[in-house]
Amino acid sequence: MKIIKAKDYEQMSRMAANILSAQVIMKPDCVLGLATGSTPIGTYNQLIEWYKKGDIDFSGITTVNLDEYKGLSPENDQSYRYFMNTHLFDHVNIDKSRTFVPDGLEADSAKACSDYDQIIADCGGIDLQLLGLGNNGHIGFNEPADAFAKGTHCVRLTQSTIDANARFFASLDEVPREAYTMGIGTIMLAKKIVVVVNGSGKADIVKKAFFGPITPQVPASILQLHSDVTVVGDAEALSAL
Asked: What is the C-alpha to C-alpha distance for residues 122 and 125, in angstroms, rounded to an integer?
C-alpha cells in the first residue's frame, strides 16, 4: 500500500487525477471504477480541466460506478447517475452508452445485482477503481457487517450513513434507506485501487482501516490485502498516522 500525503484538498485532488489520467493515457480503452460523494468532486474537476486543455481523451473508456440508491431514477438530482453526469460525464467526450451505474429503478434486488455483475464481467473487469472512505469505514455502500460481501448486493444503509447523506436531501425522511452496491469481492478484483480521503474527521478511520485489524466491521480494512492500493489524503486526514 502506498500513501501519498497532500497539503490540502486541492493538491489531493490533483494527485488523484494524475493517477487516473495516467491510466487513461496508458490504456485508452481502460475500464474505470468510479465513486460519488463530496471527496472525488475535486478529482473530477481536475480531469475536466485537463480534458478541456486537450491533455486527456475519454472517448475510448468504459466506466462502472460503485453504487446507486434503490428507488431513485437517473433523472433524480440525488441519484448517482445524475451526480456523474453533472460532475464528469456531461463535460468530457465520454460515450455515455459505456458508462454504467446500478439500476436504481429495478425493484427486483436479485435481478438488479446479477445484471450489474454481468455488466462488469462483460467489460472484462476493472483496471482502476476510485474509492472514497466513509466515516464508519464503508467503501461504496459496503457497510460494517459480519462478513465481506462478494458481488453486487442490496444494502440496508446504517443510520450513520443515512445521517451523513441527509445534507444532500431536503429532509432526513427523503434519504433512501437502501442502495445497490458493488461488492467487496468485485472491488478487490480491480487491478489498481485509489482511495481519496480528506479532512480531520476521517483521521481516525484512516488509521483503523489501513493500520488496524482486517475485519468486515471496518470494510475498507480488506484493502490491506490488495497488491496495488494508493491512498491519497490531505494532511488532516492522515494526521493520526
From this structure: 8
Q: How many other CB atoms are there within 10 angstroms of residue 81's CB atom?
A: 24
| CB 64, CB 34: distance < 8 Å | yes
Query: Which of 87, 106, 136, 165 does the annotation list as catalytic?
Result: 136
Which one of the listed residues 138, 153, 165, 198 is annotated catalytic?
138
Based on the residue annotation, tell me whether 67 is a catalytic residue of this protein.
Answer: yes
What type of residue sits at position 140? G
Average pLDDT over residues 90-119: 97
Of the candidate CATH numbers 3.40.20.10, 3.90.1300.10, 3.40.50.1360, 3.80.30.20, the domain formed by 2-234 belongs to 3.40.50.1360
Q: Which of 68, 103, 117, 143 is catalytic?
A: 143
Say whether pLDDT at 239 is over 90. Answer: yes
Mean of pLDDT values over 114-135: 97
What are the residue boundaries of the structural domains of the chain, listed by start? 2-234
Rounded CA separation 207/229 (Å): 15
Reply yes or no on whether the pLDDT at 213 is more than 90: yes
- Has 136 been annotated as catalytic? yes
Determine contact, residues 3/238, Cβ cutoff 8 Å. Answer: yes
pLDDT tens digits along 1-20:
999 999 999 999 999 999 99
Decide if 138 is catalytic. yes
Structural contact between residues 98 and 60, judged by C-beta atoms closer than 8 angstroms: no
* Residue where the block lists cell 475519454: 58
Residue located via cell numbers 485532488: 13
